[in-house]
Amino acid sequence: MAAETQDEPDGAPPSVFSPVRDLVMPALELPAHFAFNERLKLDGLEFLAHLPEQTFPVAFFDPQYRGLLDKMSYGNEGRNRNRGRSALLQMTDETITAFIRSLDRVLMPSGHVFLWMDKFHLCEGFSHWLADTKLAVVDLVTWDKGRIGMGYRTRRKSEHLVVLQKTPRRAKGVWKLHDIPDVWAETVPRGAETHRKPVELQGALIAAVTNPRDVVIDPAAGSFSVLEACLQRNRVFLGCDIEG
Questions:
Q1: CATH code, 193
Q2: Is 35:240 a contact under the CB 8 Å cutoff?
């Protein structure tokens, strides 16, 4: 079904904005042992290998970055600081690249990957992860966590969400919400699971690039905050974590 269009005033240039999506997710058949809206315990790369090509409109990916602990070590990780993060299974550079290439394979044309990024990797550069894919950076959202963290010099108070889009890259008819700020303040409750991400931000982004009942994938779901966001926004979650 074609999306409705609005006539532009005479002589006005075409608008780059649209409140509707003209992309339709293809029909999906899943392996018998996969389930929607469940916390699957599975290796993420194995999970992605079972998914069909060019099917999903959006994926979230939150790597456990080995590089941050290796290259910016404070010397006491796992003892009196950063215990939760150090206990998580860390991903090598090669593993992250393999995930992104697999996401590129299963993403539908003009689909999005929301890639969580810490300041270290944002500054060091990550373009090599996108080599041999059809993905490119189209935007960036900074999450103001509302709490001061660690840092040799400035103390970290934010994380970043890199917005990747698969070719053909366009906004009109694909991204339908236009009131999401590029700095988003949301505090995760104290005592929440390690490395938990903001549900409201993820929900807003899901609503921007999907239609109701579309399937959102997350192959390294961690605390499964994307699952919560999907349920709040009438979307369908499909994802896993190696820890379950």
A1: 3.40.50.150
A2: no
- Number of Cα atoms under 13 Å in the Cβ half of residue 153: 3
For residue 238, the cross-strand partners are: 217
Q: Are 32 and 187 in contact (CB under 8 A)?
A: no
3-state secondary structure of 120: helix
* Domain-located, residue 6: no
**Which range among 12-26, 43-57, 71-85, 225-239 shows the weakest confidence by mean pLDDT?**
71-85
Percent of the chain beyond pLDDT 70? 82
- With respect to residue 107, please indicate whether it lies within any of the assigned structural domains: yes
**What's the total number of domains in the chain?**
1
> What is the domain range of residue 145?
40-62+91-241
Q: ω before 9 within 30° of 0 (cis)?
A: no
Cβ-contact 72, 120 below 8 angstroms: yes
- 10 within domain boundaries: no
DSSP state of 171: -
Q: State the number of CA atoms in the 13 A half-sphere of 216 facing the CB.
A: 35
Indicate the helix (H) or strand (E) that contains 232: helix 225-232
On whether residue 111 sits in a domain, the answer given is yes
The sign of the torsion formed by the CA atoms of 210, 166, 38, 65 equals negative
Q: At what angle do helices 225-232 and 199-209 cross, to 10 degrees?
A: 60
Beta sheet of 40-41, edge-to-edge order: 40-41, 236-241, 215-218, 56-61, 107-117, 158-166, 135-144, 183-185
Question: Element (H or E) spanning 148, and its range?
Answer: none
For residue range 41-57, list pLDDT tens digits in order.
999 999 999 999 999 99
